[in-house]
Amino acid sequence: MGSVADERALGFGGLVSELREVFDSGRTKDMEWRQSQLRGLLRLLREKEEEIFDVLREDLGKHRGESFRDEAATPLVAFPATAFVLPEPLGVVLIFSCWNLPIGLVLEPLSGALAAGNAVVVKPSELAPSTAAFLAANLPKYLDSKAVKVVEGGPQVGEMLMEQRWDKVLYTGSGRVGRQIMAKAAKNLTPVALELGSKCPCIVDWLDSNRDSQVAVNRIIGAKWGTCAGQACIAIDYLLVEEEFAPILIEMLKSTLKRFFTKPEFMARILNKKHFQRLSDLLDDPKVASSVVHGGYFDAKTLTVEPTILLNPPLDSDIMNAEIFGPLLPIITVKKVEDSIAFLKPRPKPLAIYAFTRNEKLKNRIIQETSSGSVTFNDAIVQYGLDSIPFGGVGPSGFGQYHGKYSFEMFSHKKAVLKRSLLIEFMFRYPPWDDNDSKIGMLRHVFRFNYISLFLALLGLRR
Amino acid sequence: MATAAAEQLRESFLTGKTRPAAWREAQLRGVLRMVTEMETAICDALHADLAKPRTESYVQEVKSSCKFALKNLKKWMKPQKVSAGVLTFPSTARIAAEPLGVVLVISAWNYPFLLSVDPVIGAIAAGNAVVLKPSEIASATSTLLAELLPRFVDGSFIKVVEGGVPETTALLEQKWDKIFYTGNGKVGRIVLSLAAKHLTPVVLELGGKCPVVVDSNVDAHVAAKRIAVGKWGCNNGQACVAPDFIITTNSFAPKLVESLEKVLLKFYGKDPLQSPDLSQIVNSNHFNRLSRLMDEEMVSDKVVFGGQRDELQLKISPTLLLDVPLDSAIMKEEIFGPLLPIITADKIHESFALINSMTKPLAAYLFTKDSTLQDQFENGISAGATIINDTSIHLTNLHLPFGGVGESGMGAYHGTFSFEAFSHKKAILARCFIGETKARYPPYTPEKLKIVKGVLKGNLLAMIQAISGCARGA
């Protein structure tokens, strides 16, 4: 069969059939194959670390510290390491990644798809071209190139890929494109998972001790400007603060920003001219522009925007309605911090809600009365690296969850299996699919699955 | 009407009334009371719609579903603590289920009561407001549900909207937090494409051709009984998990056919069209469809048993066909009726290739004593469920997820899976202000990078350094 480029010209039908053949041959179901692929991914990350940093810097101006923490390390940390029973691979799956975490958003789900025994096509974002080229060159070297393919290209290529039938599609990106993907998937009854964007709010309560406030400020800065210059689905979008506390917080933010960002290269640049213009346009509205209390300098030559803080821009402005995805931080004041909850309720459910507070009652109210992909107290972004909790949105921020064992589950079908004897009329029951069950308990069951060996291997009990 | 219902339910949901366990338990007890007190009326409606025998009404299953939910509700609602790992030390992490909000359940005509109420039980247990759209084809049951539910549950949160295609389309145009659809693949695609407009997640419980592989080492009589009850004892074959066709060896086929004939005689007598234990075909549309399948030229001479029809009563007797061509309509479409083709092969392993050439079914069945074959079947055949030595019974097991894969659907329910189908599992991470790791922040230095690397790789010294803030710099 021809190259991926040839495939593109023909609409990818050949590519998918070839992968289906590979899958049907049983190659990807084999436990040893899966282990070898996962080891291949680890090797890729280890051996190609410098190159990864380079391409990320080329594409996004990311500092290597940020790159390592968010991209190279995340798959290591989120390596599936928990038990799973009753699963079977879905078959041939498609992963679309996004430009802001172009390595992480490929490798993380890829490891889950491979562990689950699927054949995979990866379509990296064309907006991070160096990273896309890197993946296209290296994934075939470190992984089984018959079962894992990289397809480069833009929206047109994405559309063509979606004309095919897949056993699962994972898309990370915007709600607009998410709708298109899902609509196309409907034609073939392809199940999808959508990881979309949102405005992630951060409630900041009065923090009595100076030390606590400084810690909060550090973490807020890290979660906004220290994460791809705010271009991340889980970056803090805006703050909700009591009006009396706002000036104090702003002063601390200003002074800490100065201490942290001593060199321009410590903050990523804006992806491209289009997004740079989009961000700049957010300040077109004079009412918004006049609410800037810090920063506001846009350098079109280097596509950088300095850390910018706004105080109470109008709630009907674009900056308060669209996901910012950039280094602009609006601060909205409320009379009492509890009013933040009423503020959030009518708004679209975000991927993450953050709150810095020691008030247990407030924490509980936030959990009970708001809805979001996740809630994190007294920090931000870090939930991304924790593989024991699912990562995903709800409502407009998407559906489907992954990370850790959830990545495995996302690309698996939980097949119910039941066995009866012809002689004796009693059932061999399959375990309840209950997360609280002891995983060892599952081994006592009568069934024998290859997956049990896999589970043991991951535990290190078997080579 | 659809817009009004959706809007009203959303307002109701936002009051937060569905959150406490007490409210949900009250609703579930209401459903249980309804099923208990109105059992006769329910069975009558099912009989009017489908001539369904009482034993097939699945009223008992609905009761069990309610009781299971009531018993486990508090456990399901309790947040689950998980390990918080070293990266975010010190911290606590948990996963809490929350309702999705306002959900739509569209049910099917073949088990119109079960497939309406069972998903609604899950939706209520998960704390949602629900609109139920029963199938208009089973009109007596639809009317009954519309009349009964408001009497037994809180009508501001649980509504029944009746109607056909226009009403269903109007409902699908609204924004829901989840859509649960049971039916066929054609409409399933429409549901999915309409859901895409609002980014609504869906569960689709669809159909397929459920194959039964019968090995020659089994007791033909036992196998025949279990196949018969799963086929004709399930709405006369009009069930998504009913055995669609059999594959067996050339040598075993005659024995199997003989056993099936004996069993059918025992179950339904010499004149099955008169048996009260045989459901009717739901309407003339489907009656004609099934007749066409039987009458196709290359198929009509393959009938070895049965084939009787009564157009007025809409009844078709259990019918066996032997070795129909694989490209006949009866082998290409989901039968959903009392016709059972038996395909023969030289070796039983040939059945695998045939099954894998078709789209993935909701269930695949195998009768054999050979444990190697059983393993090969479980590992080699993908389906919603694989059952060894029986048919259809997994439906009643509340510990098994019930759902399809590929063309047979996406998502699952029953038992805990019903609760999960209508919930969002929210991750909650709680940190405190100690354990500040300066190495996270710029200005980035090589020393900091070393520490971050060390922490992420699980290096103990690096972790200690990180937590104690020993990094030089800001």
From TrEMBL, chain A:
Cellular compartments per GO CC: cytoplasm
Catalytic activity as recorded in UniProt: an aldehyde + NAD(+) + H2O = a carboxylate + NADH + 2 H(+)
Family: Belongs to the aldehyde dehydrogenase family.
Signal peptide: none
Naturally occurring in which organism (per UniProt): Eleusine coracana subsp. coracana
Protein name as it appears in the record: Aldehyde dehydrogenase
Residues at the catalytic site: 195, 233
Keywords linked to the UniProt accession: NAD, Oxidoreductase
Molecular function per GO: aldehyde dehydrogenase (NAD+) activity
Residue ranges constituting the Aldehyde dehydrogenase domain according to the UniProt record: 81-417
UniProt-listed GO biological process terms: aldehyde metabolic process; response to abscisic acid
From TrEMBL, chain B:
InterPro entries xref list: Ald_DH/histidinol_DH, Ald_DH_C, Ald_DH_N, Aldehyde_DH_dom, Aldehyde_DH_NAD(P)
Protein source organism: Eleusine coracana subsp. coracana
Highest taxon in the source lineage: Eukaryota
Keyword terms, alphabetized: NAD, Oxidoreductase
Domain Aldehyde dehydrogenase span(s) in chain numbering: 4-427
One Pfam match: Aldedh
Record's protein name: Aldehyde dehydrogenase
Record-stated family: Belongs to the aldehyde dehydrogenase family.
